[in-house]
User: What shape does this take?
Amino acid sequence: MNMRTKPMAEKKDKDHKIVIEGVTKAGKKFRPSDWAERMSGKLASFSNRRINYSPLLQPSVNAEGYKCVLLDPALQESNPTLYNAILEFAKDNNLNICDESDDHE
Assistant: This one.
């Protein structure tokens, strides 16, 4: 039984993301409008004239229509400098930082 429940717990951790919303704590929409794509582009690659975003850092849109960045905590291990820079950028610009699992629990 333990073998069966362990992969489910690992999957939850693997799917965990930090969400940086493109709205300030004062409720203003963050500019420029392509900020999430620019930030996510730091780990993106190109092939066949298409941009491929890393699963560690992806642009998204939340339910309210604000652009967001989905930040995988695993980035802290593979690229701590970039991970910290992204969180500092969000804090410096008063962007909302949420835990994606907050919405589901």
In short: DSSP finds four helices and six strands in the chain. The beta strands are 18-24, 45-47, 50-52, 57-61, 67-71, 95-99. The CA atoms of residues 21 and 64 lie 10 Å apart. Helices lie at 2-15, 35-40, 75-78, 80-92.
